[in-house]
Amino acid sequence: MFPQIVVTFSEFQKMEQMCRILLEKLDSSVHVGAPQFFHSAASLSQLRLHACVAAVENAQQKASKISQLLGESLGSPLLVREEETKEWRNEEEAAGREHSSTALPLLPHIPTATASSQVSVSFSFRDKSKKKL
Q: In this structure, are residues 60 and 104 in contact, taking their beta carbons and an 8 Å threshold?
């Protein structure tokens, strides 16, 4: 039984470069397996934050259009509340693990993660008749 070494890279290009060097220098004495990709906790947290910010921006755009229809001017937000956050990963990631015993080598794929955020935002209206100083 040969020893197995697992290395974690944060940059795809560096991983490719290291694999090429190992294969060039060690020839058939080394086996480089297919890379396995994952999302770090920090990147998932950042993804959730971006989803929430995008939801708040979307709420502000909608409220602004509604205030224009009512002949009002949109004021400051009074309350911002995140109601729900969802996160999911692509289905290929799970399917790739299920079919890993096939005779044909699977090409590595970069997994994707998606997040959505539902927010509730209350805005004030400003009186358009008051002149700005």
A: no
